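Attaching the record inline, Q. Sequence:
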Amino acid sequence: MLVLHGPNLNLLGTREPAVYGRLSLAEVDRLIREHARRRGIGVECRQSNLEGQLIDWLQGAAREGFVGVVLNPGAFTHYSFALRDAVAAIRLPVIEVHLSNVHAREEFRRHSVIAAVAQGQISGFGPRSYLLGLDALLVMAPPRPGPRAARSRRTARR
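Structure, as predicted:
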Protein backbone atom coordinates (compact mmCIF):
# COMPACT_ATOMS: atom_id res chain seq x y z
CA MET A 1 0.00 0.00 0.00
CA LEU A 2 1.13 3.54 -0.69
CA VAL A 3 0.49 6.39 1.75
CA LEU A 4 0.84 9.90 0.38
CA HIS A 5 1.01 12.98 2.58
CA GLY A 6 0.40 16.32 0.87
CA PRO A 7 1.55 19.87 1.55
CA ASN A 8 2.50 21.06 5.03
CA LEU A 9 2.16 17.61 6.56
CA ASN A 10 5.93 17.65 7.02
CA LEU A 11 5.18 20.20 9.77
CA LEU A 12 3.08 17.82 11.86
CA GLY A 13 3.76 18.18 15.55
CA THR A 14 4.55 21.87 15.29
CA ARG A 15 1.86 23.29 12.98
CA GLU A 16 -1.38 24.00 14.85
CA PRO A 17 -1.06 21.08 17.30
CA ALA A 18 -4.56 21.78 18.65
CA VAL A 19 -5.91 20.91 15.18
CA TYR A 20 -3.41 18.40 13.79
CA GLY A 21 -1.97 16.86 16.96
CA ARG A 22 1.48 16.73 18.50
CA LEU A 23 2.90 13.73 16.63
CA SER A 24 5.54 14.43 14.01
CA LEU A 25 5.23 13.06 10.50
CA ALA A 26 7.93 10.49 11.33
CA GLU A 27 5.85 9.32 14.32
CA VAL A 28 2.68 9.10 12.19
CA ASP A 29 4.60 7.11 9.57
CA ARG A 30 5.84 4.76 12.30
CA LEU A 31 2.24 4.18 13.46
CA ILE A 32 1.21 3.46 9.87
CA ARG A 33 4.08 0.98 9.35
CA GLU A 34 3.30 -0.81 12.63
CA HIS A 35 -0.39 -1.03 11.74
CA ALA A 36 0.44 -2.41 8.29
CA ARG A 37 2.90 -4.94 9.74
CA ARG A 38 0.24 -6.23 12.16
CA ARG A 39 -2.03 -6.78 9.17
CA GLY A 40 0.65 -8.51 7.12
CA ILE A 41 0.98 -5.86 4.44
CA GLY A 42 3.83 -3.72 3.18
CA VAL A 43 3.45 0.02 3.16
CA GLU A 44 5.50 2.93 1.89
CA CYS A 45 4.93 6.48 3.14
CA ARG A 46 5.87 9.54 1.10
CA GLN A 47 5.34 13.29 1.60
CA SER A 48 5.57 16.18 -0.82
CA ASN A 49 4.59 19.83 -0.84
CA LEU A 50 4.55 19.67 -4.65
CA GLU A 51 1.36 18.90 -6.53
CA GLY A 52 3.23 17.43 -9.52
CA GLN A 53 5.20 15.04 -7.33
CA LEU A 54 2.01 13.68 -5.76
CA ILE A 55 0.54 13.23 -9.25
CA ASP A 56 3.66 11.38 -10.44
CA TRP A 57 3.47 9.04 -7.44
CA LEU A 58 -0.23 8.36 -8.03
CA GLN A 59 0.33 7.67 -11.73
CA GLY A 60 3.23 5.32 -11.00
CA ALA A 61 1.69 3.48 -8.05
CA ALA A 62 0.38 0.46 -10.00
CA ARG A 63 3.64 0.14 -11.94
CA GLU A 64 5.50 0.06 -8.63
CA GLY A 65 3.31 -2.80 -7.44
CA PHE A 66 1.03 -1.00 -5.02
CA VAL A 67 -2.56 -2.22 -4.77
CA GLY A 68 -4.07 0.87 -3.16
CA VAL A 69 -3.37 4.41 -2.01
CA VAL A 70 -4.17 6.30 1.17
CA LEU A 71 -4.02 9.99 0.26
CA ASN A 72 -4.02 13.02 2.51
CA PRO A 73 -4.04 15.78 -0.08
CA GLY A 74 -3.82 18.55 2.52
CA ALA A 75 -4.84 21.93 1.11
CA PHE A 76 -4.91 20.45 -2.41
CA THR A 77 -8.16 18.79 -1.30
CA HIS A 78 -10.10 21.97 -1.92
CA TYR A 79 -8.88 23.13 -5.32
CA SER A 80 -6.49 20.77 -7.11
CA PHE A 81 -8.32 19.58 -10.18
CA ALA A 82 -5.03 18.16 -11.45
CA LEU A 83 -4.73 15.91 -8.38
CA ARG A 84 -8.41 15.01 -8.69
CA ASP A 85 -7.90 14.00 -12.32
CA ALA A 86 -4.87 11.88 -11.39
CA VAL A 87 -6.93 10.00 -8.78
CA ALA A 88 -9.70 9.49 -11.35
CA ALA A 89 -7.22 8.27 -13.98
CA ILE A 90 -5.60 5.46 -12.00
CA ARG A 91 -7.15 2.04 -11.54
CA LEU A 92 -6.12 1.62 -7.92
CA PRO A 93 -8.51 2.34 -5.08
CA VAL A 94 -7.74 5.62 -3.31
CA ILE A 95 -8.96 6.51 0.16
CA GLU A 96 -8.85 10.23 1.00
CA VAL A 97 -7.93 10.89 4.63
CA HIS A 98 -7.65 13.92 6.88
CA LEU A 99 -6.41 14.25 10.44
CA SER A 100 -9.03 16.82 11.42
CA ASN A 101 -12.76 16.76 10.81
CA VAL A 102 -12.78 18.99 7.74
CA HIS A 103 -16.58 19.31 7.92
CA ALA A 104 -16.38 20.94 11.35
CA ARG A 105 -13.85 23.57 10.26
CA GLU A 106 -13.87 26.67 8.07
CA GLU A 107 -16.34 26.70 5.20
CA PHE A 108 -13.65 26.51 2.49
CA ARG A 109 -12.31 23.26 4.02
CA ARG A 110 -15.67 21.51 3.77
CA HIS A 111 -15.48 20.89 0.02
CA SER A 112 -13.21 18.27 -1.48
CA VAL A 113 -12.65 18.05 -5.22
CA ILE A 114 -11.01 14.65 -4.55
CA ALA A 115 -13.90 12.97 -2.70
CA ALA A 116 -16.03 12.33 -5.78
CA VAL A 117 -13.30 10.24 -7.43
CA ALA A 118 -11.91 8.51 -4.32
CA GLN A 119 -13.42 5.28 -3.06
CA GLY A 120 -14.06 6.92 0.29
CA GLN A 121 -13.12 9.68 2.69
CA ILE A 122 -12.10 9.36 6.34
CA SER A 123 -11.57 12.45 8.48
CA GLY A 124 -11.43 13.58 12.06
CA PHE A 125 -9.68 10.66 13.73
CA GLY A 126 -6.20 12.17 13.93
CA PRO A 127 -3.47 9.72 12.89
CA ARG A 128 -6.03 6.90 13.12
CA SER A 129 -7.57 8.27 9.92
CA TYR A 130 -4.59 6.77 8.07
CA LEU A 131 -4.98 3.42 9.85
CA LEU A 132 -8.68 3.31 9.02
CA GLY A 133 -7.77 4.16 5.43
CA LEU A 134 -5.40 1.18 5.28
CA ASP A 135 -8.09 -1.07 6.72
CA ALA A 136 -10.57 0.15 4.10
CA LEU A 137 -8.07 -0.63 1.34
CA LEU A 138 -7.58 -4.14 2.71
CA VAL A 139 -11.27 -4.77 2.20
CA MET A 140 -11.15 -3.36 -1.34
CA ALA A 141 -7.78 -4.43 -2.73
CA PRO A 142 -6.97 -8.13 -2.66
CA PRO A 143 -3.37 -8.81 -1.67
CA ARG A 144 -0.95 -9.67 -4.44
CA PRO A 145 2.82 -9.89 -4.70
CA GLY A 146 4.59 -6.60 -5.25
CA PRO A 147 7.73 -6.41 -7.42
CA ARG A 148 9.81 -4.85 -4.66
CA ALA A 149 8.69 -7.17 -1.87
CA ALA A 150 11.73 -9.45 -2.06
CA ARG A 151 14.13 -6.55 -2.28
CA SER A 152 12.59 -4.77 0.70
CA ARG A 153 12.28 -8.00 2.73
CA ARG A 154 8.79 -6.94 3.68
CA THR A 155 5.79 -9.12 3.23
CA ALA A 156 4.73 -9.41 -0.43
CA ARG A 157 1.38 -7.71 0.09
CA ARG A 158 1.62 -4.00 -0.70
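Confidence is low (pLDDT under 50) at residues 146-157. The first helix runs from residue 17 to 20.

More tomorrow.
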